[in-house]
Structure formats: structure tokens, C-alpha cells
Amino acid sequence: MAIITPLFASCGLIEFEIDESAQQAYDMHIESDTLHVMKGESFRLSVSFTPDSVSNHEVFWQTEHDSIIFIYGNDLMAVGEGDTHISAISVQDRIADTCFVRVFSPWEIDSHEYPYDMVLYADVKVGGKVPTDSMLVGAFVGSEFRGIGRWQQVGDVKFMTFRLYSHFEGYNPEAGERFRFVLYDRHRHTLRNFPQRIDFDGETHGSPGNLFELHLP
Asked: Where in the chain is CATH 2.60.40.1080?
């Protein structure tokens, strides 16, 4: 953590001089050093102070690219896709911390672009538990989004149903239509990859009584 001194304002941004040798009585940290955010989403940013007895917890925020991230007060809005950094600067003593932000495209699909599909019934667990409502699970071929899990329940069994889309009919090893699955936590703003994979073959996989396992530790 560094203490910084404002130098001048230009185009609405303040530039600072960093004094690495200056002594500080407390630390301030953004809650995460990396954020993954879906374009179109917004949430409130926060920082933590050590010790918590610091009298003034006010901060102001800056972004490297306001075409990617727009910040109003303490609220972040993901307005464009790409990578950038945001910085929090404490009103008291001008202590700063920086966070990397990646904004990715919304998980949307035009099913008319894909002539073939298959259905997957999956038992989804994260840390041995059913994911919370803030978590989404998407299916991809490479970096191309191909489907999203939707919750269903039969009796006491809760599971996710995926409709997975493909350009090819049936199993085609030369096409490489292998699906990977990604967990997006909209509360923690993280992306995690499930270890399981499945090839497109046009068949139904799993059933409410015999679910395909999608488990993350």
C-alpha cells in the first residue's frame, strides 16, 4: 500500500505522485484484487480498513477506461467488454489500492444459428453444496457460449438442465465440439472452470434419476 499525493487534474482524472517511503497508520484494501463482471451488470464497490477503528472510511474511485467501467459514487457499471483497472483512494491520507477488472460478454445465444442441440441433466455442486441463486453455469466450446443451466426440481431432486447447441449433427471428432462448463459467481465476481467435459453427440445425457455430475471443490 502506498501514500499518494495529487498533482493535477486533466480530463476529469487526477494524477498522483506515489510516496513509497511515507509512513501510514492504517491499510486499505479493495475486497478483491481481480473481478470478472458480465457486461450490463452493476454492483456496489467496497474496501476494508485495518484497523477498523480508522475514523474516516470514505474513498473515491477511478477507472483506467470509462468505456469499459463507469463508476458513479461507489457503484460500478460494466458498460463495455475488455480489461481495465480500477483504483480506490482514501479521503484520509490518500492511500490507494488497485484492482484488475475483466468485463465479458453476456451469456446469450441465438438458437437459430445452431441447427442441432442436445440436452444434459446435471447434478451441480460447488464445495459439496447446491449453488446459490447468485451463481450461473454456462457451457462453452472454446470461448464460444453454447448454453446455460436452468434449475428444475422433481420431488426432492434439484438439478440443472442444459440445452447445448452445435453446428454439427451427431458426434464429430474432427469438429472438436467438446463442451466445458464455467461457474460465474455474481456475488463474488469470479469465474471458475468445472473439470468435467462432454462431447456433442446429439443425444440426451443423464436423467432426473441418473444425473451427470458437475462438481467443483
From this structure: 2-104
